[in-house]
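Late entry, written up from scratch paper. The run itself happened at the end of the previous shift, but nothing got recorded in the book at the time, so transcribing now.
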Amino acid sequence: MKLVTFVEPYYKQERIGFLYDNKVVDLTLAYAKLLRDRGETQPYLLASTIVPPCMLSMLRGGERSLNAVKEAGSYVAEKLNKGQQVCGPCDEPMVFDLSTVKIKAPIRPGKIIHTAGNFREHAKEGGQAGWEFPIPPWISFLKAPSAIIGPDEPIIYPKLTKKLDHEIEMAIVIGKGGRYITENKAWDHIAGFTVFNDITARDIQRNEMKNGLLNLGKNLDTFAPLGPCITLKEAIGDVHNLKIELRVNGDPRQVSNTNHLSVKINEIVSHWSVMTLEPGDIITTGTVSGVAAFRTPDPTPYWLKPGDVVEAEIENIGILRNPVVEDKLTPEQMEWLKRREHLFASG
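Output as recorded:
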């Protein structure tokens, strides 16, 4: 089952749904329909409480909400499989063609724990390319949720950088919170998985890392493409054997597999539960080889630039596609930038 956040075409409201072929089904209305068919007299009120039209709120509803989502999905899918028309409790539309809705980032989490160094191929290519900073296992930093964008939304190329890079990663979505979670119980705390692209301004990153920091180079606006959906853990297949590929203008740049992880998914969750994990939090796995920064002998042709289209794809999840666009600043913003740009991108 693949969950999405979408904007329905009539009232332009954000809702949560699940993908069915080339359609999206409103999950809150689907659960309301299920309740009405069971004789519930206030199906909308109960459905909006148990399956609210917000992914983060739904996950915070815990096991009851996730079970209701799965139940509603199965209920509607069975009817659709039989060719039956499905509407809400008052015959309102709840099944939409994908072409008529806007798919957004599936969730805006409370925190994003970004893990680096878990694909040792990435560390190896960094050493071979002469990257001056080591990439040991378990590097981490927090990524700002404000940087999140969804499918087809533009990555803004900041005027502060000349070295914009991509890093495809699988993201773990926490369903059940906890602290000091043991490895053998970590799977119980996972709701599902999505695609994450850790956009990075390498020159800003280099400058920051001279002082041991990792902040603006990975947290500027639009530097966290996320989506297109959350594949629930029951539907992901073998999470340690999924194809990974990032393409720029159709050219494969990062090609790997989750079987190259040096640690397991349950180890990653357990490790970062040293800080309390909450429903909806995201933990990334780290990226694979093929980033622009580590291309030899000259990475110049591989830096992202305005006009590029980036496609990040992970098997059993989907394709996260984003164009790169030029940052358009006002004269006042340009003046601000001229006075301060020496403080940022000097790497």
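Residues 110-343 form a domain with the Fumarylacetoacetate hydrolase; domain 2 fold (CATH 3.90.850.10).
(Scratch paper discarded after transcription.)
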